């Protein structure tokens, strides 16, 4: 290493002229067709697929479109079979959940040859975002730099914690319902759960009107839990798999929202009452905690 | 008179035009079915028994699925119109789909779907006006707008629930709000239709 280069040299290379500014990735054929609602919006990208927000049939009906692009490094026949298999597994699980009354997105359309799955767009924001905003507002409310309450863990009985406790209870019930339906999610995190605002005449409406900030704090956590992304889900009713589902959620929750970690017991309490063998699953969860997610010590 | 409607569907190439019409109290359903059975080329339509249609969204889901199959070359039936009818079914039995969702002599109200397709070098020989005139001449019924409101008047929910195996779901029965209940059923039907053939 000689003398440092001038600052100009570390500027990123200029993108090639042909790279479109809208999408870095090839869109599935369906999204290359005209749409009155405008171009699809890339919402998120995972290892296996990309999620777009677009419209379905009419410009006013939003939909979530999941695209599993073909992988150039895989043999085309194998690639097509894997993509097809994964999409079909996901749609079967979605449909099973809906038939059992578990709140998941409705299925709109499938095109396995394009690797495309279209679903109902779930309004609202992920639990992760709502919980973090709740914690941020709480920290602003108690801004003591000397380690005041805002920086501590949320206590269950603390003033203003009720909406968060309520949300945790609904999470536990949602996971219980899912397990009761014979589905194991495989990737339960607070990003894979949405808080869908209650419809006007559906769900609890509480009458209190405090100051604006307090109202905002309460209402953002209000809503139905909708579990999303069944890309890693499987059908089954093994207590072990269910316990691992809870364990993954517990770990994810603890690392994403450390200040609300103590409230996770509320999730488990609510889960316990959702179906007959739930207490057995919770017992199993204690074993899983002792040894971690993998039983077989393989893989 | 509510004329034939041209429907703009999202993510549909300009080569395909979807036309919709709803006729109430059709007097010559036997004649219409006969034209389909004899493969009369002048009657390339999807004549759907309107009592099996829950909503525009459900109907258009079937239309879109049929067109997607036509474009991908993966149709299971002779043309896009018969494909619309089988797309309303949630299983793969084609003759059952024709019987359940297609026009029958006993059918009262009929939804007509026509898809005009222009291919490279051969634009569609028919215009929406031609289709409208042809239907007016040959369908003996009262033309009404193919809206959710009109469709709701003729939907036979018990039949739809039976066809899509939606009975015996206690949580559905527990929904008190009729509108919310129908919405759940509609979504279950659409999901089941989307999964057909997989």
UniProtKB/TrEMBL annotation, chain A:
The keyword Glycosyltransferase does not apply. Its EC number is 2.7.11.1. It is an enzyme of class 2 (transferase). Residues 1-28 are annotated as: Disordered. PROSITE patterns: PROTEIN_KINASE_DOM (PS50011), PROTEIN_KINASE_TYR (PS00109). It catalyses: L-threonyl-[protein] + ATP = O-phospho-L-threonyl-[protein] + ADP + H(+); L-seryl-[protein] + ATP = O-phospho-L-seryl-[protein] + ADP + H(+). It comes from the Eukaryota. Component of the EKC/KEOPS complex composed of at least BUD32, CGI121, GON7, KAE1 and PCC1; the whole complex dimerizes. This is EKC/KEOPS complex subunit BUD32.
Automatic annotation (TrEMBL), chain B:
The keyword Zinc-finger does not apply. It is found in: Nucleus. The keyword tRNA processing applies. Its main location: nucleus. Keywords: Nucleus, tRNA processing. It holds the Pfam family CGI-121. It comes from the Eukaryota. Signal peptide: none annotated. Belongs to the CGI121/TPRKB family. Component of the EKC/KEOPS complex that is required for the formation of a threonylcarbamoyl group on adenosine at position 37 (t(6)A37) in tRNAs that read codons beginning with adenine. The complex is probably involved in the transfer of the threonylcarbamoyl moiety of threonylcarbamoyl-AMP (TC-AMP) to the N6 group of A37. CGI121 acts as an allosteric effector that regulates the t(6)A activity of the complex. The EKC/KEOPS complex also promotes both telomere uncapping and telomere elongation. The complex is required for efficient recruitment of transcriptional coactivators. This is EKC/KEOPS complex subunit CGI121.
């Amino acid at each position: 290493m000689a003398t440092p280069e001038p600052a100009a040299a570390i500027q990123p290379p200029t993108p090639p002229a042909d790279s479109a500014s809208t999408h870095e990735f090839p869109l599935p054929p369906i999204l290359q067709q005209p749409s009155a609602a405008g171009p699809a919006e890339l919402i998120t990208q995972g290892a296996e697929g990309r999620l777009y927000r677009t419209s379905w049939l009419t410009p006013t009906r939003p939909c979530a479109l999941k695209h599993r692009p073909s992988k150039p490094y895989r043999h085309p026949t194998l690639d097509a079979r894997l993509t097809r298999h994964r999409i079909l597994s996901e749609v079967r699980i979605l449909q099973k959940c809906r038939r059992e009354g578990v709140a998941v997105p409705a299925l709109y359309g499938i095109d396995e040859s394009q690797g495309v799955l279209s679903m109902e767009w779930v309004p609202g924001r992920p639990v992760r975002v709502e919980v973090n905003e709740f914690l941020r507002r709480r920290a602003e409310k108690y801004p003591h730099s000397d380690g005041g309450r805002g920086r501590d863990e949320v206590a269950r009985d603390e003033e203003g914690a009720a909406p968060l406790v309520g949300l945790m209870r609904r999470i536990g019930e949602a996971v219980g319902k899912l397990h009761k339906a014979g589905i194991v999610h495989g990737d339960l995190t607070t990003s894979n759960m949405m808080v869908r605002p209650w419809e006007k005449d559906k769900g609890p409406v509480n009458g209190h009107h405090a100051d604006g900030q307090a109202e905002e704090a309460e209402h953002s956590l209000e809503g139905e839990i909708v579990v999303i992304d069944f890309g890693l889900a499987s059908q089954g009713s093994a207590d072990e798999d269910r316990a691992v589902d809870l364990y993954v959620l517990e770990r994810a929750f603890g690392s994403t929202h450390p200040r609300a970690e103590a409230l996770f017991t509320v999730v488990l309490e609510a889960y316990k009452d959702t179906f007959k063998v739930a207490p057995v699953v919770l017992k199993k969860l204690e074993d899983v905690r002792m040894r971690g997610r993998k039983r077989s010590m393989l893989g | 008179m509510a004329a034939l409607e041209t429907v703009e569907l999202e993510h549909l190439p300009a080569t395909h035009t979807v036309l919709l019409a709803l006729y109430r109290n059709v007097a010559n359903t036997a004649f219409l079915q006969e034209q389909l059975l004899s493969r009369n080329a002048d009657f390339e339509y999807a004549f759907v028994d309107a009592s099996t249609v829950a909503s525009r969204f459900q109907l258009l889901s079937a239309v879109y699925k049929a067109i997607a199959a036509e474009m991908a070359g993966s149709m299971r039936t002779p043309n896009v119109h018969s494909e619309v009818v089988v797309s309303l079914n949630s299983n793969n039995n084609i003759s059952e789909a024709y019987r359940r969702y297609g026009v029958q002599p006993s059918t009262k109200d009929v939804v007509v779907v026509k898809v005009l397709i222009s291919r490279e070098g051969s634009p569609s020989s028919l215009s929406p006006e031609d289709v409208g005139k042809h239907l007016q001449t040959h369908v003996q019924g009262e033309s009404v707008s193919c809206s959710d409101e009109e469709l709701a008047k003729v939907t036979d929910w018990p039949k739809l629930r039976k066809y899509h195996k939606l009975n015996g779901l206690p949580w559905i029965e527990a929904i008190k709000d009729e509108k919310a209940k129908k919405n759940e059923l509609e979504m279950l039907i659409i999901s089941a239709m989307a999964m057909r053939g997989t």
